[in-house]
Amino acid sequence: MNSPTDRPRIVIAAGEASGDMYAAELMPRLTERMPGLTAFGLGGAQSRAAGIDTIVDMDQVSVMGLVEVLRHYGRLKAAMNTLVEALDQQRPDLVIVIDFQEFNQRLAKAAKARGIPVLFVVAPQVWAWRAGRAKHFARYADHLAVLFDFEAPLFAAHGLPTTHVGHPLLDLIEREAPDRAAARALLSIPAEDTVIGLLPGSRRSEIGRLLPVFLATAERLRQADPARRFLLARAESIDSDWLREQLDDAAPSSALRDRLTITGGARRVMAASDALLVASGTATLEAALIGTPQVIAYRSNALSYQLAKRLVHLEHIGLPNIILGHAAIPERLQQDATPARLAPDIETLLTRRGTQAQKAELGEIRARLGAGGALDRLADLAAGMLKR
What we know:
2 domains, Rossmann fold, 20 helices, seven-stranded parallel sheet
């Protein structure tokens, strides 16, 4: 381990959009605490912009589902080999892995085998997959930073030092999310228009499955009221030309195209909209914190879904519903995620009663997440590990 006066070198590994966002926010906080620090690893555009040398791009590993992992095994193995070779050649002082559980657990295991300390950020959902996995996971990390307070005792009980840092989204939403009026002004949308936001995900595979369904749902909603407008959010991880190709393949009507705007900035879409149709993931919690009513939808490979159902013990998949402990937000999964089901769900949210009912629940989510400052606490934790 380098002394505190040396130039520390770390690995930061983030394999999906939310982790890439957290990595980009963490990097400047680390360099402030540890001048001269450099980082390399796994990430996307946001990590690179923050100064992390992404020797593996997250697009190379961005797959979800058991069947999808097997299908892309060669690509995933090549990415892992690149990162492990870098551990051997560059001997970093600390490895910080952010979520992206199955891949990052393997990277953490490789680091531990080489005597490199590991800080794991975002706990595996052992409360969903089997509590016994907490003991197994404790072998992969030197310290675990969890986002929810109820997670810490599950891992601390197995001897793993665990710190509840809080949820980074609290600070990011507070700092970056525009209010409704500002978001609409940026998008040139009149205050009186009814706007429905479509957020089909940040991975190509999920967009490929969900975008046609979302567009067909939008068509039903447009037919019910031709004056409605639709915003299609493009994640930073998704190339705009590719998204337009997917849009062309889905062949929406010319009438819908006239009422549809593709735009970056998911939080702007969330703030500008009256209701949202959102792919399950971190975006559902972002939307909840912004306070826009939503419907959650998801489709995965049918075999992956059936296997996951046998392994996962969760009544809900949406983060807001998991935090609240009940179905405050409608969830439509697999064959239930159809325009015939989703359009009425959105129609309900557009009524005054539907809006007020869900917004009352969304306010409780912010209260349950506690205080802000998660990223600063996380940076303090990492800097402390570097100084040992």
